[in-house]
Amino acid sequence: METKLTYPVQVGQKIQMLHKDDMLAWWVDSGATSHVCKYLKWFEEFEPLEDGSVLRMEIVATEPIKGVGKVRLVFTCGKHLLLDN
């Protein structure tokens, strides 16, 4: 039996308005269990998913999850953070 995953994402109105026109902005949620990246070129490693998993946003919108992998964030202070889902 195949299991399809749905990941809920809640984004506060303030955050949406702050970054509405910024194509490179990240949604910051320090308690997140999953991370979302819309640019394939940012992945150091990428494994395609074709199991029907979807990302659910504010209960009204869904997007298919196209894959999982690793994305490295480089901060202005020089520190690196590797996100691995």
From TrEMBL:
**Originating organism:** Helianthus annuus (Common sunflower)
Q: What is this protein called?
A: Retrovirus-related Pol polyprotein from transposon TNT 1-94-like beta-barrel domain-containing protein
Listed Pfam families: Pol_BBD
The Retrovirus-related Pol polyprotein from transposon TNT 1-94-like beta-barrel domain is annotated at 26-84
**InterPro entries given for it?**
PolX-like_BBD
Domain of life (superkingdom): Eukaryota
